[in-house]
Design brief:
The chain starts with 5 loop residues before the first helix and ends with a helix. The chain has helices spanning about 5-15, 20-30, 35-40, 50-60, 60-65, 70-80, 85-95, 105-145. It is mainly alpha-helical. It folds into two domains: about 1-105, 434 Repressor (Amino-terminal Domain); about 105-145. The radius of gyration is 22 Å and the shape is elongated.
């Protein structure tokens, strides 16, 4: 008798339930697409942090992810769950939405990367201004002495 790899089956089922590509689901779990492929196809167990993320966004406990086959009914019931943070709720809503709508998380991830780069540039300019201010203060202090 073959032992069921619940994690392997559940990761694939939750992704398919959400109508997400491997790339989009990998982005949600914060893993690479090849890593997700190994979880789904080879049954390679994901790290605990990945299981925790999957549990948070699906609303299914890690214990159940590891020991039961997840059903559509279980995921439907999770649509009603209260989430700890707005981010968790938003991500869960993306996954648990009606599967008739297509979402491109790759596009969202791209836009977030652009925003992150802009923030880095702003931080860099702010640091440059601070350095100039320190140099100016140092010069003023030395002139007064």
């Amino acid at each position: 008798m073959t032992e069921i790899n619940y994690i392997k089956e559940n990761i694939r089922f939750i992704r398919q339930y959400a109508s997400l590509s491997q790339a989009d689901f990998a982005a949600l779990l914060k893993v690479t697409t090849p890593q997700l492929w190994t979880f789904e196809k080879r049954g390679t167990p994901p790290k605990r942090v990945v299981l925790e993320r999957l549990s948070k966004i699906s609303g299914i406990s890690i214990d159940k992810l590891e020991s039961e086959i997840i059903t559509t009914q279980m995921l439907d019931d999770c649509k009603k769950k209260n989430y700890e943070t707005k981010e968790d709720a938003d991500i869960a809503n993306l996954i648990l939405q009606d599967s008739g709508e297509s979402i491109s998380l790759s596009q969202i991830a791209q836009e977030l990367n652009i925003l992150a780069e802009l923030i880095k540039k702003i931080d860099s300019k702010n640091n440059y201004v601070k350095i100039l201010e320190k140099k100016s203060k140092f010069r003023d202090d030395n002139i007064q002495n």
